[in-house]
Amino acid sequence: MLNNILERVVDYIGFMGPAILIVIYSLALIDRPNYLSVFLIGSATNILLNKTLKYIIKEPRPPNPIEYSSNDKGVYVNEEIYGMPSGHTQWAGFSVTFFFIIRRSPAWLLFGLITSVLTFNQRLKYRQHTLLQLIVGYITGMIFAIVILCMYNLVKK
Q1: What is the DSSP string of 56-102?
Q2: 73 pLDDT band (50/70/90 cuts)?
Q3: Domains of the chain: which residue ranges?
C-alpha cells in the first residue's frame, strides 16, 4: 500500500513537474523582478514555440497511451495530437536552465533536475512520448532559455 501511495505521488510530481518548477522558481525570483518578468514571458513564449514545433514536425505520440487521470483522456486536439517535442520536458528544460543561469545554485539545480527526471519518467511510463521526443523537448527548452536570456541582455545594454 505504501509503495502504491509513493508511486502515485511520484507520478503526480512528474505530471505537474513543469508547473511546480514555474511556481517555485517564480517565487524564488521575486527579489529579481526584471528576471521574473523575462522568466514568465519566456515561459509563455516557450509554450507557443512548442505548439508551433509540433505543428511543423507532426510526429505522432506513441500508440496506446495510458490515461493518467480522469481529466487526461488521452484525447488530444489540434497540434497536441503530435508528440515531438514534449511540451512537459521543454517547459522543464527551459525553467531549469533559465533559473540556473540566473542563480548558479547547485541546490536549485538539483531540485530542478530531480523534478525533470520525474517528469521524464511520468511521460514515458504513461506512453505520452517517446524517449527521443522527451530529450528533444528538454534540449529545445534549454536552448530557448539561453536565447531568451541573450536577447534580454542585449536589450538591457
Answers
A1: HH-PBPPSSPPP-STT--S---GGGGB-SS-HHHHHHHHHHHHHHHH
A2: low
A3: 2-156
